[in-house]
Design a protein that fits this description.
254 residues, alpha/beta, Rossmann fold, seven-stranded parallel beta sheet, binds NADP nicotinamide-adenine-dinucleotide phosphate
Amino acid sequence: MDLKLKESKVVITGASRGIGKSIAIAFAAEGANLLLVARGQETLEQTKTELERITSSKVEILSCDVTEATAPLEILECTKDRLKGVDILINNAGATIRNMDIEANWRASFELNTFAPLLVMEALKDELMKSTHAAVVNISSIFGREYGGPAQYQTSKAAQIALSNAYARDWVTGGIRVNNIAPGSIAFEGGSWGNRLISDPEGMAEFIRVEIPGGRFGRPEEVADAVVWLASPRASWVVGATLPVDGGQSRSGT
Ligand SMILES: NC(=O)c1ccc[n+]([C@@H]2O[C@H](COP(=O)([O-])OP(=O)(O)OC[C@H]3O[C@@H](n4cnc5c(N)ncnc54)[C@H](OP(=O)(O)O)[C@@H]3O)[C@@H](O)[C@H]2O)c1
């Protein structure tokens, strides 16, 4: 299937490693031009180099913390200057935050998982409206739809899904489709599940037996393939959806 993404301009937050990096690779394979955002400059540069080996697409990078007040404007300026516009925004930067006191954990979780995607969407709205196939995909979690993970993670991811659904109805009138992807437990080298597979293989085997009917952890490329399709013009009538990519792990249905 031709996803009709050649030369599309795609902004991806949290794109230097893990799921975000796989999303970048999948868009590059479709011939899209990319702006990759993350905090760590060195990892961003490594990812850019890797991508440039496999694609002739333009790969731009921006080192920035999406929770900083200046970040949305910085991403907008970079989008205009270096990508010359934007067709697709993937809000992927997100995390489980639990090493501070309770209030700090909750505030930081909402800053990263809820407010940052919201404010980047708002900043890029006018540029997205100029596109013929504008789309936003927010990377949430199955734990934004049902019990799992720390409460501040569940709640901030649930808010991200709720805001995406609200925006989906409002923004489709301006030609921008907004959808969510809800990954289940995804393992990769250096990621939290990947690390636990090494430190606690027996515990993880039991976790998989009880929690994941598909019989293994998901792979970042499996999330990326779903994201790229959902963001593409081939999903032109899909609006306000939350697509689980989880091997049957979630119990909340689709
Ligand atoms: N892995 C899973 O099992 C799983 C399951 C469900 C949902 N998810 C969701 O999927 C998304 C990606 O998860 P992942 O496991 O791939 O995460 P990850 O391996 O920790 O990668 C996160 C990416 O986001 C960047 N990042 C983190 N905080 C940032 C900030 N404040 N500003 C800008 N960039 C930031 C990181 O780079 P820097 O650190 O250099 O900034 C990195 O590129 C997250 O939203 C997560 O909640 C993951």
